[in-house]
Amino acid sequence: MPQIFFDPEAIAEHIIRDVGTELVVGLPLGLGKANHIVNALYARAAADRSINLTLLSALTLEKPKPKNLLEQRFIGPVIDRLFGDYPDLAYAEALHAGALPSNIKVIEFFFLAGQWLYQPFAQQHYISANYTHAASYLLSRGLNVVTQLVAKRVVDGETRYSLSCNTDTTLDVLRARSAGRAQFKLIAQVNSELPFMPGAGDLPADEFAAVLDSPATDFPLFAPPSEPISDIKYAIGLHAAGLVRDGGTLQIGIGQIGDALAQGLVVRHRDNGQFHGIMKRLAPGSEQLAAAETGPFEKGLYGVSEMLFEAFLGLIDAGILKRDVDGVILHGAFFLGPQSFYRALREMTAEQLARIQMMPVSFTNEIFGDENAKRRARVDARFVNNAMMATLLGAAISDGLENGQVVSGVGGQYNFVAQAFALEGARSVLTLEATHPSGRQTQSNIRWSYGHETIPRHLRDIFVTEYGVADVRGKSDADVVAAMLQVADSRFQDELMRRAKDAGKLPRSYEIPAAHSENYPERISDALKPARDAGLLPPFPFGSDFIEVEQRLIPALQILQQARRTPLQLLGLLWQGMRHPPDAADRECLARLGLDKPSLAVERTYRALVSAALARSRGR
């Protein structure tokens, strides 16, 4: 049975006495980190340079850090409300400050997007890894401690602990330990807010060497609030929703496009006539709509996804995620989401929760291991994941830049692309916005070429932008280039087409069809406006931890952020705000930011800017 501790420093001392001063510690990805234990180990190593501490991890979560007065006034109260006493990770603070002690290493295989882009130590110690390979890399580096946040349950006097949010790599390294291929101590920290998930991660107490269990070290779960879904992301999600086959299998990647896809599926199922109307306005080519999957879900879907998030519960509630595999409708490997998501899991009945099973990443991301059963289960699978950029020839860029800097990581993307080619009837769907802002300019996310690839062009399958679907699997290079041009932004189509023709990849006579030559953001907004006005495409389809006044402020703050890229736009906002006083509804928003009674010049400037942005967010 494990030793029970009430003090983080005491359990850190126990680990060092038990394991030694050469510590190779595995931290679960994302939510499952035992923050108090990790911080105590870090403090011991920082104070005693004879201790060598290596932290192997992924997706280090940090509270948002406001960059200016307006951000501080908006997000500061949100941070206090949602994160409360969430303990910051000491190693992350040291990394940002460039002050990591020489006897401590932090090695990660997946970053929160952009978090460590300009931090040399993090960039130099990053491991490029498919998610399914991470466990073997941990073991190869001599892993001797795993620390994990767990849920606790006592039934008939027996204590059990659930790996809950992170069965992903932990179950895989535990399997290696059971087979005699690894020796490490499993250390737990109990958290009362963590849902107790049944299944493979429900472990007896004797699997653990030590457990930190104290009200003093309980803390609120990291709960990033859902962000509002833009027209661009809704358009991408709706196009992707037309690719999902009834009776099939669904995996969704991280981000707002996943929420948009899920809401698109809900509209398709519940308001099928409305879905057809939206798609006719959105899809410029009738041949694309005719080929789409547009009916309601009679058989329903089975979910198997490395990450679970709130949208999956929305699909269950809508009666879409209902095709079961041995009684299970949703398999996952880790979860992360807003407070309402964790609360929904905690409040589920035992019968409801039994239909959601947390598994190792080797289960969700690969077909190896009980391959025949997985093939029978994962019929007509659609693996939907995000990319940053794509080339005209069908390569995808999702994790890094051409100078070698890592933005996020490969994670499970390659795993799911590989499954799409290995499973009969399966497709890989890579989604991306057609453009992105760069300083005062806009750049195309569809490139002729790029000096880095995450998914090579020989694995090209389906790409989706706000302008439509490019089905490029098994197509010739010329056909792929033509299809990618048709989903590119029209501001960049001519130059991209010229590059392709100069390289001999398109006939000189080729012209972009008229139906695809009006790919502009305004067309997307116009196409979605009736559905927005009808409430079919709400900004927060699965709820929000932002209060009502904050939800009204967010679109205005986004307008202001965009205007900052162009001085003339910013001056226009300032002039509009100075000329037109705010109405009563806007005064509540200004009060939320402490701008209702400005006393400083900077506050008066922000008041005018926000007032104008609020008016524009309502179309005035």
Describe the structure in your own words:
The chain is of the alpha/beta class. It is built from 24 helices and 22 strands. The relative contact order is 0.10.
Number of alpha- plus pi-helical segments? 24
SS elements, strand count? 22
**Average pLDDT, all residues:** 94
What distance separates the N and C termini? Answer: 66 Å
User: Beta-sheet strand percentage?
Assistant: 15-25%
Q: Which regions are unreliable across 5 or more consecutive residues at pLDDT < 50?
A: none
Shape: globular
**Helix share bin:** 25-40%
Largest sheet, strands/sense/barrel: 9 strands, mixed
Oligomer: single chain
Question: What structural category arises from helix and sheet content?
Answer: alpha/beta
Alpha carbon gyration radius: 25 Å
Topology, element by element:
Elements (H helix, E strand, L loop, with lengths): L2 E3 L2 H12 L2 E5 L8 H13 L4 E6 L11 H15 L6 H8 L6 E5 L11 H5 L9 H7 L4 E11 L2 E5 L7 H9 L6 E6 L11 E3 L5 E3 L18 H11 L7 E4 L3 H15 L1 H11 L3 H6 L10 E7 L1 H8 L12 E6 L3 H9 L2 H5 L1 E3 L2 H4 L6 H7 L3 E6 L2 E3 L4 E2 L15 H10 L4 E5 L3 E4 L2 E4 L1 E2 L14 E4 L2 E4 L5 H10 L3 H13 L18 H13 L14 H16 L3 H13 L4 H9 L8 H17 L3
Parallel strand pairs: 1-9, 2-3, 2-5, 3-4, 5-7, 7-9, 10-11, 10-14, 11-12, 12-13, 14-17, 15-20, 17-21
Antiparallel strand pairs: 5-6, 6-8, 15-16, 18-19, 21-22
Helix pairs in contact: 1-2, 8-9, 8-20, 9-10, 9-12, 10-20, 18-19, 21-24, 22-24
State the main characteristics.
nine-stranded mixed sheet, eight-stranded mixed sheet, single chain, alpha/beta, 620 residues, globular, 22 strands
